[in-house]
What we know:
Strands 9, 10, 11, 12, 13 and 14 form a 6-stranded mixed β-sheet that branches. The chain has a 5-stranded mixed β-sheet with strand order 3-4-1-2-5, with helices on both faces. Strands 6-7-8 form a 3-stranded antiparallel β-sheet, with no helix packed on it. By secondary structure, the protein is an alpha+beta fold. The chain has helices at residues 22-28, 59-62, 96-106, 113-119, 122-140, 197-201, 217-229, 278-286, 300-309, and strands spanning 35-40, 43-46, 77-82, 85-91, 109-112, 152-154, 159-161, 168-169, 174-183, 188-194, 207-210, 233-244, 249-258, 270-277. The longest helix has 19 residues, at 122-140. The chain is 27% helix and 27% strand. The chain is globular. It is built from 9 helices and 14 strands. It has 3 domains: 18-138, Nucleoside Triphosphate Pyrophosphohydrolase, CATH 3.90.79; 141-171, no CATH class; 174-309, Nucleoside Triphosphate Pyrophosphohydrolase (Alpha-Beta Complex). Helix 4 (113-119) runs antiparallel to helix 5 and helix 8 crosses helix 9 (300-309).
Amino acid sequence: MPSPHIFANNPLDRGERERRDEDWIQSQAQDSRSKFLPFRDLNVLLTGDAQPALGWVNIAQLRPDSGAPDAGDREPILLGMWGGAAHFAVDLSKSEPVASRIAEQTGWHFEDCRAAGETLPGAEGGIVAQARAQLFWHSRHGFCSVCGHPTDKKRGGQVRQCPSCRAQHFPRTDPVVITVVADVAGDRCLLGQSRGRLQRMRAYSALAGFMDQGEAIEEAVAREVMEEAGIQVKNVRYHSSQPWPFPSSLMIGCLAEAATTDIHMDDEEMTDVRWFDRAEVLRALEGSSEELTVPGPIAIAHHLIKAWATGESF
């Protein structure tokens, strides 16, 4: 079942069996039929401005010019298989001459991944999510957290292994619960403005927070809503999920009903938490409210708020 969210619906076969063969991975990384998606400073290569698409290149385009110094680590990360060809992501952040030459020769450009997600077809956004999250993780985890020794990429980048103590380290995904709480009797929903980005945007969103270890989704929802708003909830229900590669979250969208309605906000984490009636939320979704701004369709919060406002799940 396709997800309605940007950064989901990745079409690649991630190649579980193929990853077991290191020689095969190395051969595919040199194969002229393989495709490579370049990144520079976590920005992804896109084609033309009118209808952007992912800027896949071949191995020849990634090779440095003859005699030119190239100190960058361009070891590609295997994303998976598609159309009979291996697809890789490659970080050119330390290979500026190569990145600049590709952009100049193709006329393509490197784009912020969040902005790219809003313009790319859904399937390509899913590839961006996988690639960006993994490249970021590799850039931060070059050393073993057990013994401190430099680690090696294995399984096409799906794991880093320490050659000293043999510990294995896997790319992490951080689960985040994000919830629209409804006051069913009052026909209102609870939205908040957190300190930081949402405050700068003057937007209100669904309440959200990272899950703790040893915590069920329902427990995390109840805890986060209580911590941020002082509201007790009941009847927590899963709605949908969204990969969010900034840097490596999985947004777990939920809907819940309020068991209490008096707000006791945590003013260290939140700048405002309020109940908004359905009519105001509908105006905000249309962009016509003078009182309320909500996140755009790139965010799962938009779809959760819309689900409540249109009666989809309540």
